[in-house]
Every structure is written in C-alpha cells, then in structure tokens.
Amino acid sequence: MSISEEAKVVYELELRDRLEATHRDKFVAIEPTSKAFFLGDTFVAAALSAKEAFPGRKSFVLRIGHDAAFHIGGATS
What we know:
Layout: H1 3-22, E1 27-31, E2 36-40, H2 43-53, E3 60-63
Antiparallel strand pairs: 1-2, 1-3
C-alpha cells in the first residue's frame, strides 16, 4: 500500500470523527507507520511538523473535512 493509502486508512479508522468535530478546515499530516499526526493551520505547517518529528519517513497531508487538500479552479456553469 502507498503512503497516501496507508495515511487515509489511519484517518478514516482513527482520526476522522475526532478531528472533523474540532479541527475542520485545518490540515493534518499523518505518518502512517507510527500513526502519529500533526495539525496545522496550513499545509506547510502540518508537513513541517511531521518532517521534524520523523525526518527519515514520509507523511501524507489531508485537509480535515474535505476530499482534497486543495481545490483548483472553479465550478463551470
């Protein structure tokens, strides 16, 4: 399984309910091996916190309460 897939499983099974209730629209970086997570007001803040804690491991960043970390463009009519 990829890092993103592993992190999404951790999010769905262990973090979604708790984080969406209290931290919606923030960012969470998840290091899936340890299941450690790091919150940030920005994508960069969450990612840097994870990198500082686990410099040799990859983490995956999600935006809490959204299907994607970023939305590009607008809706078409």
